[in-house]
Amino acid sequence: MKLEGQVAIVTGGGRNIGEAIARLLAEEGAKVAVVDLDRGRGDAVAGAIGETGGEAASFVADVSKSDDVQALIAAIVERFGRIDILINNVAVSDNRSILEITEEEWDRTIAVTLTAPFLMAKYAALRMVEQGSGGKIVNIGSTSGHRGRARAVAYSAAKGGVANLTRSLAYQLAPHGIRVNTVSPNKTGSPVGRQDVDPDRPVTNLAGRPGVPEDTAGAVLFLVSNESSFIIGQDIFADGGVMAMEIG
């Protein structure tokens, strides 16, 4: 097993990409803290991991709030004893143009999609530094962070911020043995913030199929394993080739 004895945190771990990541990391031996605002979803994923022989526990927290994040980190350390891996997956989308979006929608999208990864990285990294054994952080980005969109102005801005947050964190945390990278999917599983997969959602890529959560999870596993020990500060596109394509 690639992650035996390690403790991983997955935010937004109760569904879609977060669920797939939590399950795969557990299959590779990690003890997983499944973090979700919806207790039922988090409990379901942690329970499913336990039923297949893994070890997981669910935690409820609003990771866009500093007090919640600090309490969460303390609770995870109390439960598992340490933190080795952080996956910043949680996000929401505004699905609005600049002419439609309200300031409240902007603030919420930025808080959940950009501020939450900052807070989680800060307090998880403090613990990793204290432990003295390094760690791995993977932020889930998006192709939306690299291109303009007709809608979702706040989401695109936030994901663009995530891409450069990763580079800054990688630079600042590398001296402590903490590797930071990003995985950026495109239209994978259900739309951001929604439960159900839309079978009619248009997808244009080089793979010729929609992305599934396991596509992103596999890239995350690579980045938190020793196989990627020389990869730092990178944005890996798990996008079916979308970013390689000409637009228009």
Q: Mind explaining what this structure looks like?
A:
The model has no long low-confidence stretch (mean pLDDT 95). 41% of the residues lie in helices and 15% in strands. The chain is of the alpha/beta class and 248 residues long. It has a 7-stranded parallel beta sheet, sandwiched between helices. It is built from 6 helices and 7 strands.
List keywords for this structure.
Rossmann fold; alpha/beta; 6 helices; 7 strands
Task: Describe the secondary-structure layout.
Blueprint: E1 7-11, H1 16-27, E2 31-35, H2 39-51, E3 55-59, H3 66-80, E4 85-88, H4 103-131, E5 135-140, H5 153-173, E6 178-185, H6 213-224, E7 235-238
Parallel strand pairs: 1-2, 1-4, 2-3, 4-5, 5-6, 6-7
Which geometry do the CA atoms define?
A: globular
**Could you describe the largest sheet, including whether it forms a barrel?**
7 strands, parallel
- Helix percent band: 40-55%
Structural class: alpha/beta
Give the CA-CA distance, first to last residue.
44 Å
SSE run: EHEHEHEHEHEHE
Strand content: 5-15%
The CATH topology annotation reads as Rossmann fold
The low-pLDDT segments are none
The average pLDDT score comes to 95
Q: Which homologous superfamily in CATH is the superfamily?
A: NAD(P)-binding Rossmann-like Domain
Radius of gyration: 17 Å
> How many H/I helical runs?
6
CATH class bucket: Alpha Beta
The figure for the number of domains is: 1
Quick overview of this protein structure:
The chain is α/β, with parallel strands linked by helices. Helices cover 41% and strands 15% of the residues.
